[in-house]
Amino acid sequence: MTVRVICPRNKKMKNPLEGVKVIDFTRVLSGPYCTMMLADMGADIIKIERPKTGDDSRSFGPLIAGESGYFISVNRGKKSVVLDLKTDAAKAAVKKLCLTSDVLVENFRPGAMKKLGLDYESLKELNPRLIFCSITGYGQDGPVSQYAGYDVIAQAVGGMMSITGYPDTPPTRVGTSIADVLSGMFAAYGIVSALHGRQTSGQGARIDISMVDSVMAVLENAVVRYGVSGKTPERIGSKHPSLCPFDIYEAKDGYIAIAAGNDSLWREFATAIKREDIIFKKEFETNELRCHNEKKLKKIIEDYTRAHAIKDLLNNLNKHGIPCGPVNDIARAVRHSQVLHRNMIVELDQKKIGKIKVAGTPVKITGLDDKNFSPAPLLGEHTDEVLAKL
Amino acid sequence: MTVRVICPRNKKMKNPLEGVKVIDFTRVLSGPYCTMMLADMGADIIKIERPKTGDDSRSFGPLIAGESGYFISVNRGKKSVVLDLKTDAAKAAVKKLCLTSDVLVENFRPGAMKKLGLDYESLKELNPRLIFCSITGYGQDGPVSQYAGYDVIAQAVGGMMSITGYPDTPPTRVGTSIADVLSGMFAAYGIVSALHGRQTSGQGARIDISMVDSVMAVLENAVVRYGVSGKTPERIGSKHPSLCPFDIYEAKDGYIAIAAGNDSLWREFATAIKREDIIFKKEFETNELRCHNEKKLKKIIEDYTRAHAIKDLLNNLNKHGIPCGPVNDIARAVRHSQVLHRNMIVELDQKKIGKIKVAGTPVKITGLDDKNFSPAPLLGEHTDEVLAKL
Asked: What ipTM is given for this predicted complex?
């Protein structure tokens, strides 16, 4: 059950995407993340995989008894059907599937589906209600659309890396494949929007998602800031550009994030760290002055935080109403009481290897069971079942 | 027009969310990003703002003739209605609006809507089809749900910062407010999913999105990797954990991302940088050996790349079929030919200040005009128009 306190589960309610049928040609991360989001909301996903190796990510570590933890973490709740798309029989099977499907998702390079005779133009003749979504590095068209688009390249081209990191470090890749994930998320959003639109239009749609576009779309105020000022945004580490103290600070046993972004929080914060003496000191009196003298202030703050454990700092600051939080490593994040309470770590019961923990769904919505998910499929686990129905 | 080559615009098609009515109580970034995504797909957004100051972000820089570029960049296509929610008349107006609305989105702290008498339980009595979405730092319930959840805190608590950065730097905040944006995106996805589900159930839904949940959900393989190995994932800079060469490299005039992740690409790459001599050198012969000797290899590669301009490197590597891309700063990203071709930089024609450039929508979908967006509203611009209809 999901929205725990507010919304007791209504047993009659179905999951929002129940009955939506998806043919899934995707591999590795961006596409599989998209179809996992659809599966989490109740859609039926038929994942088409090539014989023998399947999705490339089935060989990605960590491996457990030959099965990929990587694959499992983005393919829960899907069915796996092995088809050799070089054969006419396989193509015919896909076309038959299309007749009764709502959505097709793929993340091949532009043109690959056409070579297979399975492009949107061909398939919409068979099923005009089909929603056909492609995810690529650069999109279906444009001067460099044929180039390979790995996550690191999309993060680089889209400008994300240039604003991530400290002033004295090189541009920095976000530590998760955020370009892949973002493009998968925008794809899932586009698909469900198209499903909604189809209710009135009766028409399917073609969706064209690019990883670079997706990165550009989340640069927050960077585009407008550059446009207005002509100044290229730079790397500023973890601090806020115009509020202080608003950064991470080193503690005895790690780091803590503190966000005391106005004068009353500043006064309370200085009191909490027993430095009432600096509250009205000329150089720290206003937010503007604190930003100007940020380095000096950070040193003063860290003189205090370095002498205390994260846990004690949090207790103390929370008592004073200062917004703060631990900078959790993954080991701490997965054990955080709030994270556990929210069912953000869930267990899948996988064939062959047993129980394995993955991240849950952040989309908490009435009636959705956010704790119990079906496992990721073994390669070809559902081939017979699905093909028998055709 | 959007999916340019493949999908000529069909003039009869409506935008996917046309006719969807949204009451928007959101402020700053996470909520406004969500409702901008809904607006981009054609939904009608009525943004409720408090008198005089409105959304806090109306005062965020960069300012142009007193108007906020920050606000404009995440509020295009919405209507602004000023209401003082402390008054009964305002609450009555919101309730009237609810009768004919599909969606309500808010990002106050948990409990604030209840204090106003505008919580889900109250409003669904008036309109059982209402979809009510909240976005908060930690979610509506749980041990720390009442704590303030700024972006930097959610990035910290969710583990994202711990895996972003170089081995010798502190944890690193992603340079854009990714926790805000991700929670806005998951909210938008939840909302359209609920709209779809409502078509069969006839029922609205309660959606509860948390910034920390949203960060946890995009950690890629970090959760499963930790679960399986017991090892806490660390910061590894911009390189790939298990492929080499797959990193960014310093050029004469910036950095370039290169992704030569298999043996044949390696051989081609070494040839491209005129180092055929090291292709079969014992220490670089296999991917595993290259990863093991990554530092040494990076030095060799940068000896070459530092001597050449990005443009020349790209030409050369692309000729050899090596996946690569420039590490664009924002100035370069917004001018990239592909970015421009894809309409990812669009111009809004704002009242008072004229034309201003913002990032476009990455959701390219049949029939959607991805070039011409309505401007962001002035504070209270639509108050009379909207209230007159009630």
From this structure: 0.97
Report CA-CA distances (Å) from A42 to A21, A36, B113, B209. Answer: 10, 10, 29, 18
- A175: nearest CA in chain B? B164
Overall CATH class of domain B21-218+341-389: alpha beta
Name the strand (E) or helix (H) holding B103. Answer: strand B103-106
Task: Report whether A320 contacts A271 (CB < 8 A).
Answer: yes
CATH architecture of the domain with residue range A246-333: 2-Layer Sandwich (3.30)
Contact A224, B75 (CB under 8 A): no
Q: Which CATH class is domain B246-329?
A: alpha beta
Q: SS3 string of A1-56?
A: CCCCCCCCCCCCCCCCCCCCEEEECCCCCHHHHHHHHHHHCCCEEEEEECCCCCCH
User: Can you give the pTM of this predicted structure?
Assistant: 0.97
* A145, two tokens: 């659309």
> Which positions of A are catalytic?
240
- Asked if B171's CB is within 8 angstroms of A367's CB, the reply is no
Active site residue B240: yes
Which residues of chain B does A223 touch, with a Cβ-Cβ cutoff of 8 Å? 73, 330, 334, 345, 357-359
Chains A, B: CB contacts within 8 A come to: 563
**Chain A partners within 8 Å of B14 (Cβ):** 197, 200-201
> What does the alpha-carbon distance between residue B69 and residue A224 come to, in Å, rounded to a whole number?
6
- Contacts B3 to A, Cβ<8 Å: 140, 206-208
Q: Would you kindly state where each structural domain of chain A is located, as residue ranges?
A: 21-218+343-389, 246-333
In Å, how far is B96's CA from the nearest CA of chain A? 23
Output DSSP code: residue A135: E
CATH code of the domain occupying A21-218+343-389: 3.40.50.10540
Amino acid at A287: N
Q: For the stretch A350-366, what's the b/e string if a residue is b when 16 or more beta carbons lie within 10 angstroms of its beta carbon?
A: beebeebbbbbbbbbbb
pLDDT tens, A164-193? 999 999 999 999 999 999 999 999 999 999
Q: What sign does the dihedral A370-A14-A27-A195 (CA atoms) show?
A: negative
What is the widest separation between alpha-carbon atoms in chain B?
Answer: 80
- Residue of chain A whose alpha carbon sits nearest to that of B229: A62
List pLDDT tens digits, range A303-348: 999 999 999 999 999 999 999 999 999 999 999 999 999 999 999 9
